[in-house]
Specification:
By secondary structure, the chain is an alpha/beta fold. Helices cover 56% and strands 10% of the residues.
């Protein structure tokens, strides 16, 4: 009569326990050094080896050559323990025997010495299912049992146990078994069973088992029957309702190629699959690709994809339409490949802003080429000026909002020439009345200039008469801007009174000097400052 794999290959020694090295090592040393406790608590995920470890530990305690970490397997005690019929090893299921009367009966058994073994051992499985009264009845016996009694408690939920129980036991936590360990164990079993298999198929079974070896072995039993002696990835995927690895490759190839028409065809094929299962398979695929450092995906793309998938799982929890959620996921992933980083956007804006300055034509050196070169420079200037003219208009608007007289005088008397290398060049042709108004408002003008064009902006003024400005046409203005500035040695015509107030040589306070001040440094340390903004004060 055939047995299921979980029972057929149940471990008989500590060496056979998979993925719980810290637990088995501690128990083995305790047995060999004779440093035994009267009560043990094993907690962990289902199928992680709690009951198997409890039985092996019990056998090690009652072996005629023990207590030892390596039972002989030959004495009567070992043989009866392996067959689960030893009279001094009493297993109790707390899920079905959970009342105080059941615990009273157990306590009665502790009063009698073992029949043939060294110890009388009580294994209580699913101990968290006991009632409050049953726990209270067990406390005294669990704290001070007879010297020949050992308790081994097993549970999947230690948080439900009273603190009084936890404090009276040695607690061993069984961790989730790693996928690699599970796959190696499955390979070993299939080799003993003379079955053909693919590692990829075993990995799929391991993921479906969620770290529980018993669950994985149950699925392996099913796969052996379904695959007819040859366990392959497609057959396991079909059996579990999972996606074939080739289909996952096709999905991501379509996403990276941004082929929306093909994606619609794929979505129609996926209508027969559960949405949550598909999402889990995609997450597993991306996780595997991340650890393999595949060049197709950047770290930023992984982060975006996982964010989209986690949001999709939240939608499923509120009973959203599964097929629509899956459609959203795939099309959002396609869009995620187009989104640029903040650094890329800033870089593009800066390149757009300064591309004219980087491609400026050098001054004319050959009169024969003067006309074409001048034409190019005029076209460049025509493209360049509008970039900052909108900023200059914004400056005028701010001044008008602050003071209508100042704003009107500034608009009538000051004209924009250019902005380059953090220097704002303007032309002044103010009359006497505007000169007086602008002179008194120079600090306000300077404040708004730095607010619009940047805190490090330097103001440079040029003087001309109003009549001269009116006579200039657009082409002459452009040519005048292209000519290099000639120094004016006449003191009286070096600039207007407005220019003297706006562009006077006053040392600006450097932002770095402010940040390096002792007061600012101390405040940064005290308050855990993450961002400091410096604003000019009028």
């Amino acid at each position: 009569m055939s047995q299921v794999l979980a029972l057929k290959y149940r471990p008989k020694s500590f060496d056979g326990i998979i993925g719980q090295n810290s637990v088995t090592q501690t128990l083995s040393l305790a047995l060999n050094q004779d440093r035994l406790s009267h009560a043990y608590l094993f907690s962990g995920l289902r199928g992680s080896g709690k009951t198997s470890t409890a039985r092996i530990f019990s056998k090690a305690l009652i072996c005629e050559k023990g207590p030892t970490a390596t039972p002989c397997e030959e004495c009567e005690n070992c043989k009866m323990a392996n067959e689960n019929r030893h009279i001094d090893i009493i297993e109790m299921d707390a899920a079905s025997s959970r009342k105080i009367d059941d615990i009273r009966e157990l306590i009665e058994h502790t009063k009698y010495k073992p029949n043939s073994a060294r110890y009388k051992i009580f294994i209580i499985d699913e101990v968290h299912m006991l009632t409050k009264e049953a726990f209270n009845a067990l406390l005294k016996t669990l704290e001070e049992p007879p010297s020949y009694v050992k308790f081994i408690l097993a549970t999947t939920d230690p948080l439900k146990l009273p603190p009084t129980i936890l404090s009276r036991t040695q607690h061993f936590r069984f961790k989730q078994i790693g996928q690699k360990d599970v796959v190696n164990h499955l390979s070993h079993i299939l080799n003993l069973e003379n079955m053909k298999y693919e590692i990829e198929a075993l990995e799929m079974l391991s993921r479906a088992g969620n770290g529980s070896l018993r669950d994985t072995l149950t699925l392996l039993d099913q796969a052996m029957i379904f695959s007819k002696g040859d366990i392959t990835a497609p057959s396991v995927a079909s059996m579990l309702g999972l996606l074939d690895p080739k289909e996952l490759d096709l999905i991501f190839e379509t996403i990276l190629n941004k082929d929306k028409i093909k994606m619609l065809e794929i979505l129609k094929k996926l209508e027969t699959y559960e949405c949550e299962v598909v999402l889990d398979e995609i997450i597993a695929y991306l996780k595997s690709a991340f650890f393999k450092s595949e060049s197709r995906f950047s770290t930023l793309l992984y982060e975006r994809f996982f964010r989209i998938l986690s949001e999709a799982k939240n939608l499923l929890y509120i009973n959203a339409d599964n097929s629509f959620v899956l459609s959203l996921v795939f099309f959002k992933m396609i869009e995620a490949t187009n989104i640029k980083t903040i650094e890329e956007i800033i870089e593009n804006l800066e390149n757009e802003k300064f591309r004219v300055g980087q491609n400026e034509v050098s001054p004319m050196t050959n009169t024969n080429q003067g006309a074409p070169t001048l034409k190019k420079e005029i076209m460049i200037q025509e493209k360049r000026v509008p970039i900052y003219e909108s900023e200059f208009s914004k400056l005028i608007t701010l001044l008008k909002d602050r003071n209508i007289d100042v704003g009107n005088c500034f608009e009538q008397s000051i004209s924009f020439i250019g902005f380059e290398n953090k220097t704002l060049t303007m032309n002044s042709h103010a009359n006497e009345n505007c000169k007086k108004i602008l002179r008194h408002a120079s600090s306000i003008i300077k404040h708004f200039v730095q607010e619009v064009f940047g805190i490090e902006t330097i103001i440079k003024m040029q003087k001309s008469s109003p009549k001269h400005i009116e006579k200039k046409n657009e082409s002459k203005e452009v040519q005048a801007k292209l000519k290099p500035e000639t120094p004016n040695h006449e003191g009286e015509n070096c600039g207007s009174c407005v220019a003297e107030h706006l562009a006077k040589d006053v040392k600006e306070i450097d932002a770095n000097e402010i940040l390096s001040a002792p007061f600012i440094k101390k405040a940064t340390e005290l308050f855990d400052v993450k961002k400091i903004e410096i604003h000019p004060k009028v």
